[in-house]
């Protein structure tokens, strides 16, 4: 990278995205990110205090990436509106296996005992509200179906 180019958070997050897509989130470290950006590790730590802060920021970034994926899937797929959420979830798992694993498997610190425990996961209440609106049913009924 040319010496006058300033490394930004967006550049770092996109590098982490590429690494995660290629080899999984467990392989993300400062040296690997720096290598992807073709710089030393120093510029990264002008944007982030430590790797923990960077990884937390990336998790938010990855969820937004998934939400955009689902929106794009909805716009391009020719499926019934009530099926787009589950089908986009399956398509994401197939196409973005490492990200899916990070977001929906590894990142789950839940004690899933009852079906309602599903709603402890970040974003599932909002997804159910969207699902409820699509189906035109009450939220509680949509939760049962979802």
Fraction of residues in helix: 55-70%
Assign the structural class, choosing from mainly alpha, mainly beta, alpha/beta, alpha+beta, or little secondary structure: mainly alpha
Give Rg in angstroms: 18 Å
The helix/strand series, from N terminus to C terminus, equals: HHHHHHHH
Q: Which percent range describes the beta-strand content?
A: under 5%
Query: Residue ranges: pLDDT <50 for 5 or more in a row?
Result: none
Main beta sheet: none
Q: What is the gist of this entry?
A:
The protein is mostly helical and 146 residues long.
Task: Please explain how this structure is put together.
The chain has helices at 9-23, 30-37, 44-47, 51-76, 84-95, 97-106, 124-135, 139-145. With 146 residues, it is mainly alpha-helical.
